[in-house]
Amino acid sequence: MAFDIVKYTRASDAVGWSDLDFDEFERNPLPDHVLRSLRYMCDVEYHTVCYLRDMLTTPSHKEPEIAAFMTMWNREEFWHGEALSAVLERHGIHVDYSALKAKRLKLGFKDRLDPIKQSFGSNLIGIDFAAVHMAWGAANEWSANAAYHRLAALEGADHPVLAELLKRIAQQETKHVAFYATQARERLAKSKKARVIARFALRKFWGPVGSTIAEPDEVTHVMGHLFQGSEGRKLVRGIDAHIARLPGLEGLTIVENSLEARGITGEDREPTPEPEVAAA
Amino acid sequence: MTTNDETTIAPAATAFDVSEFARTAKGFHRDELDLEQFEQHGLEPDAARLLRVLRDLERSTMARMRNLLVTATHKDARVTAFLTTWAYEKFWLADALDAVLEASRAEEDLPADEGHHRLTVSERRDRRGTIRRAISANFAGPQIVAAHVTAGLADEWITHAAYRRLAGIAESLSSVVETVLEVKDRHIRFFQEEAERRLGESPKARRITRKELLGTAWPIGSVERPAEERSFFERIVFGGAEGREEARGIGALISALPGMTAVGSTIEARLVP
Question: What is the ipTM of this complex?
Fold first, then answer.
């Protein structure tokens, strides 16, 4: 399954919302727990440039196809941030560049792959580290895609405008998934060493998208909001099944494990209004 | 660290609107180009070769992004928002230049685009890998952003001169050059505003920036280019009386920036073959 980079770059565009009636949010505002999740997603999208930095520290950016993809991907994700911040703005939540910067300074961006590079040290010489990056990226994009679809399904009946916007965002994420998964599949298939390292890295270090840039309480809130219960668990297993189909990653259940570790289960609970303090 | 050193958020007086820039980004230019004339008449070798250099420079944005993002610059959300759109626009500029080259079929006759690199001592800084860059930028702190935007500005001035020269060599390229310069105009405006403000605010920013400008191979990205191609670029853009005049103009613009008085003439001397 080839990924057509020329077609992708030419079709790449900022996600649009000018045709959507955002006044609806003033007539029928989103509940607090939804806004809290949206804020988290908005931050994640805006911080894509920090992930881009990680990707660029491997020589893979010299490959024209990857450079082209990264350029478009980074911009599309930036616009997802803009779109979500426009929704938040209608609820009096102002996300601007100075707030984002403050967050980047406060949390310090942790390079999640650093410990992996360190633990393998010189063993990484000569391996296609891009294979690991691509598998990692695929896992992230599958999760993001599922998260947007899930939120759209949860809120669709009460807030169709939000659901439509989320679907548009998810559509772009689907293309990102295709790129990462195609790259990961090809690169992992070529190298046993890359398969071993990718498996180790994902099993040991992977965490939900955003967990390096958000407070643990926020991560737990969002993951619980979207994936607690039997419906959520079904989706999570779907993501894991996708990941496990990549060469060398058979049998991994990293997403399910990461949720279990945060106390998010497949048990259906009564939908409760957001408590004052989120369960840790 | 003084409060100045933390001031990387644009004050209210900033004129450049990053959101507006992002919203009105210019992509895909092939439809506006008259490619047929290049298919029919081709391009003369010097124009084609300069076009190839410029295409490759516009294309190297991801390498530049990497060098910026491993430093504190990635923490400044306004700057990264700018860079996101800047990289996108440059991608499509490279694509437009590539379309012209392809249509002219002139590339096949050009000298090979490979060979040994220049190893000038003064450019040693520019050859650093990501790790050494990240470490030295750590010592520089947030003021490294000033160095990056100022280098971006000087680079724009230099490539502007190259594009003007390109239109001078080949009349047929003038509308292509016009399109490119129109897109780049906003890049210059952002870099200029940021450079002047940041340099004006902090002595540390001026010190770091001087070091950065003096250690850079111009235009940015040249360090990765074969020595032969760099000599060609300097000869064609800054050779001759007119070229020297261009270089002098760029030197003067750089010298006029806060704290850069002594830097302009050094860069001018390096540009001239």
Answer: 0.89
